[in-house]
Every structure is written in C-alpha cells, then in structure tokens.
C-alpha cells in the first residue's frame, strides 16, 4: 500500500454507522502539519500551557536538589557503615538510590521539554533547594536528612501548585517524587525516634 492511499483511507474511518461524519474527528492534517513544524520542540506541542523557561528552571533546580541529596545520603551511608550502624546505613543507601532515580526522571523530562539538564558540579550546591550537610554523628546525619526532606517536600508541593493544569506531565512527575520524599521524611523521623528512645 502506498503512503498516499493510507492517508486517503483515514477519512472513511471517521464516518459513523449511518455514514454521517463524526463531530469529534480530529483534524489530523492540521495536527500532523503542526507536529512537523514544531519537531524541534520535542514532545511539547502547541497545547503546552506553561511557561517553558520557568518549568525548565524549576526542573533544573530540582535536579540539583536530587543530586545533592544523592551525594549527602551516599556520604552518610559510608559513614554510618563505618561506625557499624548497619540498619541506618542501609536506609541511607536506599534513599541515595531513590534520589538518583529522581534525578534521572527529572533530567529526562528536561530533555523532553527541549531543555538541557544542568549537571555542572561547581554550581550544584547553590542551585539546590536542600543543603549538603555532612553531620557530625549518626543522629546529626539523620536530622540533616530530615531537614533536607522537609525542604524538598515544601518546594515540590509549591511547584505542583504552580504547574496545576498548565503542564500535567511535569506535575505528575513531581507528585510521584513528592510521595517518595514524604516516605523518606517518615523513615528519618522513625530512625530518630528509635535512637532517641
Ligand atoms: Fe528525591
Ligand atoms: Fe528524599
């Protein structure tokens, strides 16, 4: 079958059983033309309702946050392991892995939106919402992580409110990440309770 006959066959499928035109048939020609015209924009179509530059900035700052969180949990994992706090160490290790996954998801979304993920190490700490705090002992480390998680939770909740219906895909990404950060905060609070008690 040639390409042109495949295109011609399409309108026939849009007729209902009585042969009447379906009023909800999309203008495929127009959508295809627009898709081709905006090919450089990646997956972002003309129906994208957000300010892309703002969203990319929010995503890149969040990427920096996730990288800093990964590094902090990694540091804490090795330090806790060194002082034979295996249970706490394995919790830190799991969180490090999940923060890394968040970073990857965010970087992927940045590229989908036609942006570039910023992995520049020099400016990471200043761009991140959360801080890289080493922590003097086990309780200190857990406290620092809890603080960082709370900052991430507040920031992501704010970003989700901003995105609203303007960029639903990015909003869903942040909602999924937010749920994990809430679990992280719970985990740290539980560890603190266990060690304080
Ligand atoms: Fe995270
Ligand atoms: Fe987290």
UniProtKB/TrEMBL annotation:
The lineage of its organism: Bacteria, Pseudomonadati, Pseudomonadota, Betaproteobacteria, Burkholderiales. It comes from the Bacteria. The keyword Metal-binding applies. One of its GO terms (cellular component) is cytosol. Keywords: Iron, Iron storage, Metal-binding. PANTHER family: BACTERIOFERRITIN (PTHR30295), DNA PROTECTION DURING STARVATION PROTEIN (PTHR30295:SF1). GO terms for molecular function: ferric iron binding; ferroxidase activity; heme binding. This is Bacterioferritin. Residues 49-197 form the Ferritin-like diiron domain. It comes from Caballeronia sordidicola. CDD domains: Ferritin_like (cd00657). The keyword Transmembrane helix does not apply.
